[in-house]
Amino acid sequence: MAILKIARMGNPILLQKCEPVANPGAPEIRRLVADMMQTMEDAPGVGLAGPQVYVPLRLFVFRVPAERASADPAARAVPNTVLINPEIEPIGEEIGLNWEGCLSIPEMRAVVPRALRIRYRGVDCDGNVIEGEAHRFHARIMQHENDHLNGILYPMRVTDFRYFGFNAELDRAAEEQRRQQQEQQQQADGQ
Ligand code: NI
Q: Does pTM surpass 0.90?
Protein backbone atom coordinates (compact mmCIF):
# COMPACT_ATOMS: atom_id res chain seq x y z
CA MET A 1 0.00 0.00 0.00
CA ALA A 2 1.04 3.56 -0.50
CA ILE A 3 0.21 7.07 0.59
CA LEU A 4 -0.96 8.91 -2.53
CA LYS A 5 -0.34 12.53 -3.48
CA ILE A 6 -3.47 14.66 -3.06
CA ALA A 7 -4.38 17.24 -5.73
CA ARG A 8 -5.14 20.71 -4.36
CA MET A 9 -7.77 23.21 -5.49
CA GLY A 10 -6.61 24.92 -8.67
CA ASN A 11 -5.61 21.64 -10.27
CA PRO A 12 -7.95 21.13 -13.27
CA ILE A 13 -8.35 17.42 -12.46
CA LEU A 14 -10.61 18.48 -9.60
CA LEU A 15 -13.00 20.20 -12.02
CA GLN A 16 -13.54 17.21 -14.31
CA LYS A 17 -16.65 15.09 -14.56
CA CYS A 18 -15.31 11.60 -13.80
CA GLU A 19 -15.86 8.42 -15.82
CA PRO A 20 -17.63 5.34 -14.44
CA VAL A 21 -15.42 2.46 -13.26
CA ALA A 22 -15.77 -0.20 -15.97
CA ASN A 23 -14.63 -3.13 -13.84
CA PRO A 24 -14.91 -2.54 -10.07
CA GLY A 25 -13.27 -5.93 -9.38
CA ALA A 26 -10.08 -5.21 -11.38
CA PRO A 27 -6.87 -5.66 -9.36
CA GLU A 28 -5.77 -2.08 -10.08
CA ILE A 29 -9.06 -0.73 -8.65
CA ARG A 30 -8.67 -2.89 -5.54
CA ARG A 31 -5.12 -1.55 -5.09
CA LEU A 32 -6.27 2.03 -5.67
CA VAL A 33 -9.04 1.68 -3.08
CA ALA A 34 -6.62 0.26 -0.48
CA ASP A 35 -4.20 3.13 -1.15
CA MET A 36 -7.00 5.70 -0.95
CA MET A 37 -8.11 4.34 2.43
CA GLN A 38 -4.56 4.50 3.73
CA THR A 39 -4.14 8.05 2.35
CA MET A 40 -7.42 9.16 3.96
CA GLU A 41 -6.39 7.78 7.36
CA ASP A 42 -2.92 9.24 7.11
CA ALA A 43 -4.14 12.76 6.18
CA PRO A 44 -6.28 12.37 8.38
CA GLY A 45 -9.62 12.87 6.67
CA VAL A 46 -13.10 11.34 6.56
CA GLY A 47 -13.42 11.05 2.79
CA LEU A 48 -11.37 10.93 -0.39
CA ALA A 49 -12.54 10.80 -4.01
CA GLY A 50 -10.75 9.43 -7.11
CA PRO A 51 -9.91 12.79 -8.74
CA GLN A 52 -8.27 13.96 -5.50
CA VAL A 53 -5.57 11.34 -6.10
CA TYR A 54 -5.35 12.09 -9.84
CA VAL A 55 -7.68 9.25 -10.90
CA PRO A 56 -10.77 10.76 -12.58
CA LEU A 57 -13.01 7.73 -11.97
CA ARG A 58 -16.35 7.56 -10.16
CA LEU A 59 -15.38 6.16 -6.78
CA PHE A 60 -14.73 7.44 -3.27
CA VAL A 61 -13.79 6.15 0.16
CA PHE A 62 -15.09 7.53 3.44
CA ARG A 63 -15.56 6.78 7.13
CA VAL A 64 -17.52 8.14 10.07
CA PRO A 65 -15.20 8.06 13.10
CA ALA A 66 -16.79 7.03 16.40
CA GLU A 67 -16.07 10.45 17.95
CA ARG A 68 -17.97 12.21 15.17
CA ALA A 69 -20.88 9.78 15.41
CA SER A 70 -21.16 10.15 19.19
CA ALA A 71 -21.78 13.91 18.84
CA ASP A 72 -25.05 13.07 17.14
CA PRO A 73 -27.41 10.56 18.78
CA ALA A 74 -28.92 9.64 15.40
CA ALA A 75 -25.51 8.80 13.92
CA ARG A 76 -23.43 5.66 13.93
CA ALA A 77 -19.76 5.08 13.25
CA VAL A 78 -18.98 3.75 9.77
CA PRO A 79 -15.71 1.89 9.09
CA ASN A 80 -13.62 2.59 5.97
CA THR A 81 -16.01 2.09 3.09
CA VAL A 82 -15.70 2.35 -0.68
CA LEU A 83 -18.50 3.30 -3.01
CA ILE A 84 -17.91 2.69 -6.73
CA ASN A 85 -20.16 4.25 -9.40
CA PRO A 86 -22.29 5.85 -6.69
CA GLU A 87 -25.75 7.31 -7.12
CA ILE A 88 -26.93 9.68 -4.45
CA GLU A 89 -30.30 11.37 -4.11
CA PRO A 90 -31.72 13.49 -1.33
CA ILE A 91 -34.70 12.28 0.69
CA GLY A 92 -37.07 15.13 1.44
CA GLU A 93 -36.33 18.81 1.34
CA GLU A 94 -34.59 19.30 4.68
CA ILE A 95 -31.26 21.12 4.45
CA GLY A 96 -28.66 21.29 7.21
CA LEU A 97 -25.86 23.83 7.63
CA ASN A 98 -22.54 22.68 9.02
CA TRP A 99 -18.80 23.10 8.73
CA GLU A 100 -16.94 21.23 6.02
CA GLY A 101 -13.32 20.89 5.02
CA CYS A 102 -11.55 19.12 2.17
CA LEU A 103 -8.13 17.48 1.84
CA SER A 104 -7.74 19.35 -1.47
CA ILE A 105 -8.26 22.70 0.29
CA PRO A 106 -5.97 22.37 3.32
CA GLU A 107 -6.36 24.43 6.48
CA MET A 108 -9.72 25.92 5.52
CA ARG A 109 -13.35 25.27 6.27
CA ALA A 110 -16.76 26.70 5.48
CA VAL A 111 -20.39 26.29 6.40
CA VAL A 112 -22.03 24.37 3.56
CA PRO A 113 -25.73 23.57 3.06
CA ARG A 114 -26.44 19.87 2.42
CA ALA A 115 -29.48 17.60 2.35
CA LEU A 116 -29.93 16.09 5.82
CA ARG A 117 -31.00 12.70 4.46
CA ILE A 118 -29.94 10.87 1.33
CA ARG A 119 -30.37 7.52 -0.35
CA TYR A 120 -27.20 5.99 -1.84
CA ARG A 121 -26.38 3.08 -4.08
CA GLY A 122 -23.15 1.79 -5.56
CA VAL A 123 -20.93 -1.29 -5.60
CA ASP A 124 -17.79 -2.39 -3.77
CA CYS A 125 -14.68 -4.11 -5.18
CA ASP A 126 -16.43 -7.50 -5.03
CA GLY A 127 -19.32 -6.22 -7.11
CA ASN A 128 -21.68 -6.31 -4.10
CA VAL A 129 -24.39 -3.70 -4.26
CA ILE A 130 -24.09 -1.27 -1.38
CA GLU A 131 -27.21 0.75 -0.72
CA GLY A 132 -28.97 2.45 2.10
CA GLU A 133 -29.90 5.72 3.71
CA ALA A 134 -27.54 8.13 5.39
CA HIS A 135 -28.30 11.04 7.69
CA ARG A 136 -26.55 14.19 8.84
CA PHE A 137 -22.73 13.88 9.05
CA HIS A 138 -22.70 10.57 7.18
CA ALA A 139 -24.96 12.06 4.46
CA ARG A 140 -22.83 15.22 4.35
CA ILE A 141 -19.62 13.29 3.68
CA MET A 142 -21.21 11.25 0.92
CA GLN A 143 -22.61 14.36 -0.79
CA HIS A 144 -19.23 16.11 -0.52
CA GLU A 145 -17.40 13.11 -2.01
CA ASN A 146 -20.00 12.57 -4.72
CA ASP A 147 -19.63 16.24 -5.70
CA HIS A 148 -15.91 15.59 -6.36
CA LEU A 149 -16.93 13.08 -9.05
CA ASN A 150 -18.78 15.88 -10.84
CA GLY A 151 -16.00 18.44 -10.54
CA ILE A 152 -17.67 20.32 -7.68
CA LEU A 153 -15.66 21.55 -4.69
CA TYR A 154 -17.36 22.67 -1.48
CA PRO A 155 -16.64 26.42 -1.95
CA MET A 156 -18.95 26.23 -4.99
CA ARG A 157 -21.75 25.29 -2.54
CA VAL A 158 -21.08 28.04 0.00
CA THR A 159 -23.97 30.49 0.34
CA ASP A 160 -22.58 32.78 3.06
CA PHE A 161 -18.89 33.59 2.62
CA ARG A 162 -18.66 35.08 6.12
CA TYR A 163 -18.46 31.46 7.20
CA PHE A 164 -15.49 30.52 5.03
CA GLY A 165 -11.96 30.90 6.32
CA PHE A 166 -8.70 29.51 7.61
CA ASN A 167 -9.05 27.03 10.47
CA ALA A 168 -6.54 28.90 12.63
CA GLU A 169 -8.42 32.21 12.29
CA LEU A 170 -11.85 30.64 12.77
CA ASP A 171 -10.60 28.75 15.85
CA ARG A 172 -9.11 31.95 17.28
CA ALA A 173 -12.34 33.89 16.65
CA ALA A 174 -14.44 31.14 18.24
CA GLU A 175 -12.13 31.04 21.26
CA GLU A 176 -12.34 34.84 21.64
CA GLN A 177 -16.13 34.70 21.42
CA ARG A 178 -16.22 32.00 24.11
CA ARG A 179 -13.99 34.11 26.35
CA GLN A 180 -16.20 37.20 25.95
CA GLN A 181 -19.34 35.22 26.71
CA GLN A 182 -17.70 33.78 29.81
CA GLU A 183 -16.73 37.28 30.96
CA GLN A 184 -20.25 38.57 30.43
CA GLN A 185 -21.63 35.59 32.34
CA GLN A 186 -19.22 36.25 35.23
CA GLN A 187 -20.22 39.93 35.30
CA ALA A 188 -23.90 38.97 35.30
CA ASP A 189 -23.29 36.46 38.11
CA GLY A 190 -21.43 39.11 40.13
CA GLN A 191 -24.26 41.66 39.97
NI1 NI B 1 -13.13 17.01 -0.55
A: yes
- What's the 105 CA to ligand 1 centre distance in angstroms? 8
What pLDDT tens digit does each residue of the chain (191 aa) get? 899 999 999 999 999 999 999 999 999 999 999 999 999 999 999 999 999 999 999 999 999 998 877 777 667 899 999 999 999 999 999 999 999 999 999 999 999 999 999 999 999 999 999 999 999 999 999 999 999 999 999 999 999 999 999 999 999 999 999 999 999 999 888 86
Q: Domain 12-159 adopts which CATH fold?
A: Peptide Deformylase (3.90.45)
Tell me, yes or no, if 145 is annotated catalytic: yes
Strand ranges (E), 6-162: 47-49, 59-64, 78-90, 95-102, 105-115, 117-123, 129-135
Give domain limits for the chain. Answer: 12-159
CA of 148 to the centre of ligand 1 (A): 7
